[in-house]
From TrEMBL, chain A:
It comes from the Bacteria. Residues 372-522 form the Thiamine pyrophosphate enzyme TPP-binding domain. This is Acetolactate synthase. Binds 1 thiamine pyrophosphate per subunit. Belongs to the TPP enzyme family. One of its GO terms (cellular component) is acetolactate synthase complex. Its cofactor is thiamine diphosphate; Mg(2+).
Length: 571, 206
């Protein structure tokens, strides 16, 4: 057996059924050995970034580890964005890279990159396997590290000669899943005391609470405490429950942001108080004692003052807090919250919000919704309703344009029985659109692409409008966008287009009913904004609830300026 | 109720870490400090009595919250087996310094006398300079340097502080954070696999 075969055998032993990758010189022995392991399916992406985002989509939808593979040098560096993305969103991921042979390492050889050095700050851990004897052990350990505690990406770099070296040892099997520490009873008791005395309590659940969704739901109902789910935590609590207040933060709901600003006790579960969630930190939950349930000790107290740290597994913590629950009778708080909730804006006019709502209203509970990054992402997060966890896939921490489409492919491949819908902007889709070829190659039938085409890098344009006096610098795409329908068809992917509210429902029907993966382009007005919005650097209570009335466009001064220039020349 | 982000005057904190003796460990740790903006004032690294384990002692400047956060981030690194915050226990610490002092026929005797008072050894004798070796805690070394300063210090080199917890259960502090014991301190030293130095027969292939 070679090192390369030992690699596949180890992955197979770990139940890895699918890997996403792209071959090259320094990983060829691994690709050669792949032909002996039909139990592992390899998906050829069209760019390593596509491969790693697909692996992330797989992992986010299933909660299981995603695996991607690339060659040395440029292949490896193309993984960097995905690794950083997985690091910030705590995605369990194994990235395998080839490298030049050991004797060439450090010599600036052809296609050599110090990928472990490059990825040091954006991986949970990384390895160079310098001895074939260590290869299966390292792979098993890498998978364990990626999945344990707060999950994250681990990279294993394998020099080419190690892939080729003979291996006679055992092939590694999975490590037992490490048990998460249970929270201390004293901490739970303190938290309970605070909750019992609370007049305006609120629960805030983040991405780390997705696997504790049932327990958190029981907890909230037992105490009768309203729940806010962060961008990463959407689905951790059913949206249909009257206790749900929506998403907090920069584009959070009025109810969520006002409730945080007024709360006297905030119970945070599995979250890290990202600045897009907190707004200005010293204005975040200014009146609240914060209870923070979190597995990762380093997150407790990192950003906000925590009154009661509860270090441990969210499932266990939520159960412990439910056991001692006592229904809180807080009519005033409820009335206040009902008033805030009534301020939810539903887009009724034709525009990006209307389009996104029309699409997400069609989601069934099992459908997976991915998004790319931009206005459409925030609109989807505001407007979609999730009843279950792991049905919402997006790049929260890094905000990676180009993430959505390949992630939807990964999620769709992980769950071929469900529809995997992605909403993308005309900007971000073009960053990884070559993955249309992946749909074609594997005849994937459950991925539905929706492009919200506003001819702008919309989110940047919105900031320019609000904070740079409408100087729209380098955000116009309208002149150079492709014909998205034709583009899709070039890859054998059926394309649909809607440009107004009347034709949209019919097009959505046809697009969803298409037996193949299909693309729907929705052409919307150029200048819509996403609101509510908390300007960067402001506190949550300083949020702008609705879109300010649009000012008159700046007068066209070009003629005057030309005249002035002419005058200057003549003078 | 403990408060984790309490601010107080920044001061020096002496911390040791037992780390796996793997390539890039030092980079990993210093990169973590650098990225998060913690300044390391002094750092010393050496092998331990346990194969496969090295010990680092560093001095971080910051308030309690900053240092605790730095330690928690460190603790997450796979290579870090145990963190010891010396401020929570009684400890001994030492630093070694080499000091080259200018001498003249007039000052020679006095310089030697001061060195003797500090139990410092002369490690190099030149016509115009003497080099001393001093070990001690930070205070002693600073005092030595201050005493020598008027004669003219030509060069100094300090090793950075090293420290051990006092007592028989040295290095196993009863607690590390003020919220009591931490589970993450469990990973036993025994779980560290020493890296054997294997002969490197590298085939020449592309
Ligand atoms: C890789 C990358 N580059 C740049 C950005 C900055 N950025 C954030 S949103 C955005 C605009 C996205 O435009 P589009 O994809 O058209 O979506 P829209 O906002 O119009 O819905 C940009 C450029 C980013 N998030 N990621």
């Amino acid at each position: 057996m070679t090192g390369a075969k030992a690699l596949w055998a180890t992955l197979a032993n770990h139940g890895i059924s699918t890997v996403f990758g792209y071959p090259g010189g320094a990983i060829m022995p691994v690709y050669d050995a792949l032909t002996f392991y039909p139990e592992v399916r390899h998906v050829l992406a069209r760019h390593e970034q596509g491969a790693i985002h697909a692996a992330e989509g797989w992992a986010k939808a299933t909660g299981e580890i995603g695996v991607c593979i690339a060659t040395s040098g440029p292949g490896a560096t193309n993984l960097v964005t995905g690794l950083a993305d997985a690091m910030l969103d705590s995605v369990p991921l194994l990235a395998i890279t080839g490298n030049v042979a050991r004797h060439l390492m450090g010599t600036d050889a052809f296609q050599e990159a110090d990928i472990t050095g490059i990825t040091l700050p954006i991986t949970k851990h990384n390895y160079v396997v310098r001895d074939v004897e260590e290869l299966p052990r390292v792979i098993a350990e890498a998978i364990r590290i990626a999945r344990s505690g707060r999950p994250g990406p681990v990279l294993v770099d394998i020099p080419k000669d190690v892939q080729l070296a003979a291996y006679a040892g055992e092939v590694a099997y999975p490590h037992a899943r490490p048990e998460h520490p249970a929270p201390k009873p004293e901490a739970i008791a303190k938290a309970r005391e605070l909750l019992l005395a609370a007049k305006k309590p609120v629960i805030m659940a983040g991405g780390g609470s997705l696997d504790a969704s049932a327990e958190i739901t029981a907890l909230a109902r037992a105490w009768d405490i309203p729940v806010i789910t962060t961008l990463m935590g959407l689905g951790a609590f059913p949206s249909s429950d009257p206790l749900w207040l929506g998403m907090p933060g920069m584009h959070g709901s009025v109810a969520a942001n006002r409730a945080i600003s007024e709360a006297d006790v905030l119970l945070g579960i599995g979250l890290r108080f990202d600045d897009r969630v907190t707004g200005r930190v010293n204005g975040f939950a200014p009146n609240a004692a914060i209870i923070h349930v979190e597995l990762d000790a380093a997150e407790i107290g990192k950003i906000v003052r925590v009154g009661v740290p509860v270090r441990g597994d969210a499932v266990v913590a939520a159960k412990m807090l439910t056991e001692s629950a006592q229904k809180l009778d807080l009519p005033e708080w409820r009335a206040q919250i009902a008033e805030w909730k009534s301020r939810t804006v539903t887009p009724t006019e034709w525009g990006a919000g209307f389009a996104v709502k029309s699409v997400v209203d069609r989601l069934r509970p099992d459908d997976i919704l991915s998004s790319d990054v931009g206005q459409h992402q925030m609109l989807a997060a505001q407007l979609a309703r999730f009843e279950k966890p792991r049905r919402w896939i997006n790049s929260g921490g890094l905000g990676t344009m180009g993430f959505g489409f390949p992630a939807a492919i990964g999620a769709g491949m992980a769950e071929p029985g469900v529809t995997s819908i992605v909403i993308a902007g005309d900007g971000g889709f073009q960053m990884t659109l070559q993955e249309l070829a992946t749909l074609k190659m594997y005849d994937i039938r459950n991925v539905k692409i929706c492009i919200i085409n506003n001819s702008y890098l919309g989110m940047v344009r919105q900031w320019q409008e609000l904070f740079h006096e409408k100087r729209y610098s380098e955000v116009w795409l309208g002149d150079s966008n492709p014909d998205f329908v034709k583009l899709a068809e070039a890859y054998d992917v059926p394309g649909y287009r809607a440009s107004n509210a009347e034709e949209l429902p019919g097009m959505i029907d046809a697009w969803l009913a298409d037996p193949k993966s299909a693309l729907l382009e929705i052409v919307v007005p150029h200048e819509h904004g996403v609101f509510p919005m908390v300007p960067a650097g402001a506190a949550l209570y300083e949020m702008i609830e609705t879109e300010p009335p649009r000012k008159q466009p700046a007068p066209d001064l070009s003629a005057e300026m030309a005249e002035a220039a002419e005058g200057a020349k003549n003078a | 109720m403990s408060d984790y982000t309490m601010t107080e005057q920044p001061k020096d904190h002496l911390v040791s870490a037992l780390v796996r003796d793997e390539p890039r460990v030092l980079t990993r740790i210093t990169a973590l400090f650098g990225r998060r903006g913690y300044n390391i004032r002094s750092l010393s690294v050496g092998a331990t009595e346990h194969p496969g384990l090295s010990r680092m002692t560093f001095v971080v400047t910051g308030d309690r919250g900053v240092v605790e956060q730095a330690m928690r981030q460190l603790e997450k690194l796979h290579d870090v087996v145990r963190i010891i915050d010396h401020s929570l226990e009684k400890f001994v610490d030492r630093e070694l310094v080499l000091v080259k002092v200018a001498i003249s026929p007039d000052s020679r005797v006095e310089v030697r006398q001061i060195a003797e008072d500090f139990r410092s050894r002369i490690v190099d004798v030149g016509r115009h300079a003497l080099t001393f070796e001093v070990t001690g805690d930070e205070g002693k070394i600073t005092a030595f340097i201050e005493q020598m300063r008027p004669f003219g210090i030509l060069e100094t080199m300090r090793t950075g502080r090293i420290a051990l917890t006092r007592g028989s259960n040295a290095d196993i502090p009863s607690h590390v954070y003020h919220d009591g014991e931490t589970e993450t301190l469990r990973p036993a030293v025994e779980s560290v696999e020493p890296r054997e130095e294997r002969a490197r027969d590298v085939p020449n292939l592309f």
